[in-house]
Model the fold of this input.
Amino acid sequence: MTSLWPIERIGFYEGQASAFYNVSAIERDYFEMWYFDNLGAYKSAAHGNLEGVEQGHRKMEAALESIGNKAREIRDISETERKAGIEPEPSGLWQTGAYTDYNREHN
Amino acid sequence: MAAAVIYRIRYIVCLLSMLSLAVHTALANEIPAQGPFTDSECVSCHSDRNPELIRQWRNGPHDPASGVGCSSCHGSLHADANVKARKNQGCTNCHEGPASHSYSKSKHGVLNRIEAHEQDWRKPLKSGNYRAPGSAYCHLHDGDHDDTMSADRGPEVRQWICVGCHSPRYVREQFANGRRQLDIADLKLTEGKQLIASAANSQTKELSKLRQSLIYHRRNVLYGVGHQSPDYQWWHGQPALDGDLIRIRDAIE
Done:
């Protein structure tokens, strides 16, 4: 049947590109902070789970600090480059790979 | 008259011999003593009774080298030896982490847990006796002392176990989906490893941590697929691999 009528399955079903795949690492950190730690704390609050609220907030604080440090680092690099007149050159690094190539056609 | 007496005597003799045979058989199968026994006592006595069972145990994941003996699952007494071994608790005492967590979050795991008190655990681990499969139902199916779910037995054995409860078409579809999920996960693993290999210095602490993370999350997909556990196929699996790829690129850029 599927050979007569091919079904192209997308996304979740086969485990392809999830939300926040096409982003930089610092954005991904923020996504995980928002999705897991924040929603975890909020749902724990809604369900009266004090321990979950505390754990969520602990993780959010740690994530906030780490994201803050990384942001400073990135801004410093950018500032240094700007002063030195260096134009960042985009590389193909983010555009190829076994999964990334496959994903272009099958997502 | 004489013939009738002889007939009756023969009849009684026959009955008696049948009775003694029945008693003899019953005795042979009666559990000889309660124990406690040491593992080597279990092995030597059961080797005589059921060499196939012992052979399976020696060839399986719980072989002597693993340090898991008969009593690890059955306890050292005969009373309730089977009941103890069939329940999940016996396995999860040793198997913690993703292997058992993925199962416990699956529909099978939840059903098995909430209905544990209604289940008759004296029944052998065979189709029809259990509503939802526990760890031993699948991995030590029907008295198997090797691993019934072992990869080298091929998918047919695993599908056959599922078909004991689900329709063949449903099971085929689940397996096809599982295969595709693992293919995708393998593409991610390959991409990640190649990225790391292409780095100017692939031996940094950060990159070796990320390489471990790739392997760990690929295994989560396998647990998710094997245990029909959506959270492991998804959150702990596929998107976690996506996150690894992003962080690997960030680290080598």
Q: What stands out?
A: The radius of gyration of chain A is 20 Å. Residues 24-84 of chain A form one domain. Helices of chain A lie at 25-46, 50-84, 98-105.
